[in-house]
Amino acid sequence: MNTSNGRDTQTKDVGAVVNAIHILRYLAHQQEPQGAATTARATGVSPSTTFNILRTLTHEGVVRFDEHTKTYRLGLGLSELAVNLIGQSHADLIQPELDRLALNLQILIVLWRVTHDHHISMIARAIPQVPHVDVRTDSRLPELIGASGRCIAGLRNLPSDDLRRHFAALRWDNPPTFDAYLADVEKARHTGWALDDNCLYHGVSMAGSVITDQNVQPRFAISGIAIGVQQDSSSICKAGEAIHDTCQYLRRSLFPRAATPRE
Predict the structure, then answer these.
(1) What is the pTM of this model?
(2) With CB atoms 3.0 to 4.6 Å apart as the test, which of 61, 93, 143, 232 could cross-link to 77 if both were Cys?
(3) Which DSSP symbol is given to 257?
(4) Between β-strands 193-197 and 218-227, what pairing exists: parallel, antiparallel or unpaired?
């Protein structure tokens, strides 16, 4: 069985590789070079393992060692690894994940950019190999509408009166009551994903989640959009969970946060 980011749950991660990635992520978030002991404490990797990994990464040019201060920082060798990513847009980087979701879930998958004027704008999509609804490439919606809108509303954490005012301005084919919408927002705040079943558009079921940045602000949203009669409650919930897992994976990849010590 595969998880949403394509990793096989039946296999075991290689500990040394996982530790090396934790160390690299930690160094990437530091303004100053760090010593081996400090790095070990911050990442939760044992001091001897941290030293050996840093020494190996230094030999490979991925980390640079300062002989005078006995500290480490990222090295130019990382640019060799990232050269094929430089210059690509977020949509280009995310597209393979959209394609995988569409293939596995057999529904239309849409990537939205959250704009500064509180809308979402469609920037990419992946089309399933079954009859499907479609979305125009220039589509633009208020950020609080639909499935992903409930997730964004949860992140915005607006006072109830403000949220009610924004909700009143939204246009749905079959609008939910504000109380029902608010309950969905609260649920999305805890689960990370939400559903819209026959509300935004008649006969259409949606599942959505959000990719947040380092400040936990919504930057992108991913929606799974299906013809309602093709999806039962179980399958659309499965889609919501898979989209959320993918958003979490993309958040860690595109907007990594400072490493914290592991238990």
Answers:
(1) 0.71
(2) 61
(3) -
(4) unpaired
Structure tokens at 74: 């990222």
Average pLDDT, the chain: 88
Q: Name all domains of the chain by residue range, CATH numbers in brackets.
A: 15-82 (1.10.10.10), 90-254 (3.30.450.40)
The mean per-residue pLDDT over the stretch 221-236 comes to: 88
CB 148 within 8 A of CB 184: no
Beta-carbon contacts of residue 205 (< 8 Å; ≥ 6 apart): 195, 196, 197, 198, 225, 226, 227, 228, 231, 236
Q: For the segment 164-215, what is each residue's pLDDT rounded down to a tens digit? A: 999 999 999 999 999 999 999 999 999 999 999 999 999 999 999 999 998 8
Helical spans, DSSP H, in 118-256: 146-156, 160-168, 178-191, 233-254
Report the C-alpha gap between 23 and 56 in whole angstroms: 12
- How many other CB atoms sit within 10 Å of the CB of residue 233? 10
